[in-house]
Amino acid sequence: MRDPRHSDPWRLGPRGRWWFDAALTLGLLVPGFLGHLMAGQPLAALLTAVQVAPLWWRRVHPSAVFAAVALASAAQAPLHDLPIFGQLAFPIAVYSVARWSPRPHGVAALLVGYTGSVVAAWSWIGGFGAPTITLSAVTPYVVSIGAIVTAAWALGFAAQQRERYVASLVARAEQAERIAEREVELAARDERSRIAREMHDVVAHGLSVIVVQADGARYAAAKDPDLAVGTLATISTTGRESLTEMRRLLGLLRDGDTGVAPQPGLDDVRHLVDEARAAGMEVDADLPEAAPDVPDGVGLAAYRIVQESLTNVRKHAGPRATVTLRVTVGPAVEVEVRDDGRGAAAASDGRGLGVTGMRERAAVHGGTLEAGPAPGGGFAVSARLPL
C-alpha cells in the first residue's frame, strides 16, 4: 500500500487549469461589471472589463497580460479617481508574471507595481475629497498597496522557484535513469563478450582434442582395434564435457537460468595436462603440489590461458611437438607455456582470437601476457596475474 505521507502533490491538470482560469476571470468580471452598472458607474464598469478580461491568457502570455492590465490601470488615474472592482486584477497579473515569465520581467512588474501604488494613492486621496494631499495621508495607501503587490510577486516567485527545483529533480532523475540503463547495457555487453571468449575457449579446445583423437583412431583402427576403442572413449568424454560447459555458458544467456555450475580454476589445470597427454601430446608440467588459494577470477583466467595455449600448440605447432608448462603462485600467478614446434612458421588464417582473448583475460585482472616465437624455435606464452 502506498504511504500517504509520500504521495505526489495535488496539481491541476490541463482541463482543471482551464476551468480555474475561467472561474477566476468570470468571477471578477461579471460581479464587477454588473455591480458598477447597477451603481450607475458605466465608466468604472468599462475599466473593470478592460482590466479583468486579459487574465484569461495569464498562463500563456503572462508578460503581455500584465502589460495590458498595467496600461488599463494607468488609464484609470485620469479617468476615474476612485478604487474600482477591476483593480483586483493587478496583483493577480503581478503574480502571474512573477511565476511564468523570466525573472527580469517579474522584477520589472514589481517596480511598476510600486510606482502604481504611489499614483493610485495620490489619485484616490483626491477622489475621496481631501482638501490637500499630504505625505502623511498618502503613505498608508502606498504602504498597503505596495504590500499587496509585494505579496503577490513573492508568491509567484516562490512558485516559479519550486517549479524550477522540481524540474531540475526530474531532469536529474531522468539523467540518472539513462546512465543506469547505459551501465546495464555496457555490463550486458561485457558479459556477452566474456561468454564469447569462454565459448571460444571451450569449442576450440574440445574440437581440437576430438580432431586429434579422431585422426589417431582412424589410423589405429586397422592395426590395434583396442587402442581405437580407447581413443573413441576419450573422444566421447571430451565431447560430453565440452557440451556440458557450452550448455552452462548458453544458460547464462537465458532468462531464468542462473548458470551456477562451478567455473574451472587453477587446480583444474592438471586435468588439461592429463587430457593433452591422453591425446598424444608430450607435456612436461611443473605445477604446484597443492591447489593454492587464489581468487576464482584469477584461477579461471590462468586455466583458460593454459587451455588456449595447449589448443594453439595442437593446432599450429605441428606433429611431435613437446610442451613445457610451468605454473607458479607467489605475489602473482605466473603461467608459462612453451613448445618446440613450428613457431612463427606456423600457418594461420589470421582470424583467430585466442591470443587476443588471453591478453584480455590478463588485462582484466591487472596482469600482462606476452606471446610470440621463442628464442631457439617454437612458440611461448607467458602470463602474469597479480593477486
Automatic annotation (TrEMBL):
Histidine kinase domain location is 304-387
Keywords associated with the record: 4Fe-4S, ATP-binding, Cytoplasm, Iron, Iron-sulfur, Kinase, Membrane, Metal-binding, Nucleotide-binding, Phosphoprotein, Transferase, Transmembrane, Transmembrane helix, Two-component regulatory system
Q: Which reaction does it catalyse?
A: ATP + protein L-histidine = ADP + protein N-phospho-L-histidine
Alphabetized SMART domains for the sequence: HATPase_c
The membrane spanning regions, by residue number, are 18-39, 107-125, 137-159
Coarsely, its chief localization is cytoplasm
Tell me where in or outside the cell this protein is found: Cytoplasm
The top EC class is transferase
Pfam families attached to this UniProt entry: DUF7134 (PF23539), HATPase_c (PF02518), HisKA_3 (PF07730)
Might you give the EC number(s) for this enzyme? 2.7.13.3
Protein name per its UniProtKB record: Oxygen sensor histidine kinase NreB
Which taxonomic lineage is given here?
A: Bacteria, Bacillati, Actinomycetota, Actinomycetes, Propionibacteriales
